[in-house]
Amino acid sequence: MGGYYLKIYSGLFICTAYRGDEKRYHERAKMQQLIFQTTRRLKYANYYENDMHHTRISETVEPSVVNDIVVTLVICKPYNHVPQPHERRALRIKPYWRFRLRGETSLIEMHSLFKCSADYGTTMDAVEEIPKLTDLNMFKYPSSFIFIHDTFYVPQQFYVSEQTLAQLDTSKMTPMTDISLPIRKWMEKKKDLFGVVQVKDIAGVQVQDLVCMLGYPYVYVHQGSCEHVFYFTDLRLMDAQDYPISFPQMLSDTSFEHNCKICRRHVAQWIVEGEEMSADPVHMCEGCFTSYHFVYLHRRDLKSRAHPYVDPSCLQL
């Protein structure tokens, strides 16, 4: 018998007519599949659209003659303090960025992908005095290292653009030091737990020279105790669809952390500390910060300190 009935899928009302024929049955099946796909969060939901539609080449095309590999680098959220007991229960590794590297990508290029909001911060009150480049933490505490497998890769010099280097007064910059030395001395005292480790300069090293395991966590450390966990995954040979493409290539970005706590509309650009604030500290955007602290060009008499803030979602632009 023919008739009509009503079905509900994910809050959507769909009126379908049952006629008993196979054609309408397949139409309903396609509709169910479409609704199911649009209401799920799939594996590659955070990937860029151009990478989601990156199709494989057909078998009729000759393979690429480039003798190289490609691998995915996953950089996770940094931690700059020892987690408290209540933090450890909810602690989880949150991926920030995913990059595709090739075997010939240098370790210097890979090192430049580790960006942190703490590098662009300063301890001085940025409202009272405009900070200089040398006042930023990345130039006050420039030393860092990358630990992979059994090797500490330590940079021996600054790797910045020529435009930035021209604005710096190198005489006021903190010299580079090997901050892995205290860790290596501590590891030597516990030889029953740790094996022999090496120390190398990151210059002249490529990704294809690394000894590592896929999915195994390694660490990038800077500013003394700020740790960025990262790992490698999806290793394969390079083919025709990968060449020529610029590397490193960003695949996804899920690093957004703080919006303005006043308007809740814009990305935060300031961290404000003070007793007058509803929370201490509080994140503010440029518009809310200016309207709260200034009357025209005159600063209000507030007992607060302000520090510039760069959200992680703005670091890889």
Which labels suit this protein?
single chain, eight-stranded mixed β-sheet, 317 residues, RNA polymerase II cis-regulatory region sequence-specific DNA binding, alpha+beta, Structural Genomics Hypothetical 15.5 Kd Protein In mrcA-pckA Intergenic Region, Chain A, three-stranded antiparallel β-sheet, globular, disordered N terminus, nucleus
Structure explained in plain terms:
This protein has two domains: 69-253, Structural Genomics Hypothetical 15.5 Kd Protein In mrcA-pckA Intergenic Region, Chain A (Roll); 270-314, no CATH class. Helices cover 18% and strands 26% of the residues. It contains eight helices and 15 strands. It has helices spanning 22-38, 49-52, 85-89, 107-111, 137-140, 162-166, 181-188, 286-293, and strands at residues 3-9, 12-18, 69-76, 95-102, 144-148, 151-154, 198-201, 218-222, 226-237, 249-253, 270-274, 282-284, 294-295, 298-299, 304-308. It has an eight-stranded mixed beta sheet with strand order 7-6-5-8-9-3-4-10, with no helix packed on it. A hairpin with a 2-residue loop joins β1 and β2. The protein is globular, with a radius of gyration of 26 Å. It starts with a strand and ends in a 9-residue tail after the last strand. This is snRNA-activating protein complex subunit 3. Its main location: nucleus. Belongs to the SNAPC3/SRD2 family. It holds the Pfam family SNAPC3.
Secondary-structure topology with pairs:
Elements: E1 3-9, E2 12-18, H1 22-38, H2 49-52, E3 69-76, H3 85-89, E4 95-102, H4 107-111, H5 137-140, E5 144-148, E6 151-154, H6 162-166, H7 181-188, E7 198-201, E8 218-222, E9 226-237, E10 249-253, E11 270-274, E12 282-284, H8 286-293, E13 294-295, E14 298-299, E15 304-308
Family: Belongs to the SNAPC3/SRD2 family.
GO cellular component, one term: snRNA-activating protein complex
InterPro entries: snRNA-activating_su3
